[in-house]
Write a structure and sequence with these properties.
The longest helix has 14 residues. The protein has about 150 residues and is of the alpha+beta class. The chain is built from three helices and eight strands; from the N terminus they run βαβββαβββαβ. It is globular, with a radius of gyration of 14 Å.
């Protein structure tokens, strides 16, 4: 089995319901981080996000995990019109064990994850051993605890 982490975010519609449905649609869930409300990073002006990280113990490959992520986004009626724009659901493959993969549409570890507090804070809740010491001073953005999904 492979240990994998996916990042989930939503800032349109019923944000918590979108996250809840996505987690319910994931296979092999081991744990779900607390939810954080976060300001958007990059892109146009938009409403705050709810973000969390999900840990999986899975036999799925990174490519299969990306396929699952895209299916969940489609199920949430995500529309891709503006890069880093508002979305009903965003699902990112963050880490898959210690694999490193560089393909045009899939990079693992996620190339910007260590720069974003909305990813690192919930990841640290689930797997503090994977997060570099002193990360709090090196990541962008603010996060505010928002309970559980």
């Amino acid at each position: 089995m492979t240990r994998a982490f996916l990042g989930l975010g939503s800032n349109l519609g019923d944000r918590r319901a979108h996250l809840r449905a996505a987690v319910a649609g994931l296979p092999d869930v081991v744990a779900v981080s607390p939810v954080y409300e976060t300001d958007p990073v990059g892109g146009p002006a938009q409403d705050p996000y709810l973000n969390c990280v999900v840990e999986l113990s899975t036999e799925l490959s990174p490519r299969q995990l990306l396929d699952v992520a895209h299916r969940l986004e489609q199920d949430a009626a995500r529309v891709r019109t503006v890069r880093w724009g508002p979305r009903t659901l965003d699902v990112d493959v963050l880490l898959v064990d210690d694999l490193s993969l560089h393909e045009p549409d899939l990079v693992v570890p996620h190339p910007r994850m260590w720069e974003r507090r909305f990813v690192v804070a919930p990841l640290a809740d689930l797997a503090p051993e994977l997060v570099p010491a002193g990360w709090e001073g090196r990541v962008a953005g603010d996060v505010h605890p928002a309970g559980r999904i």
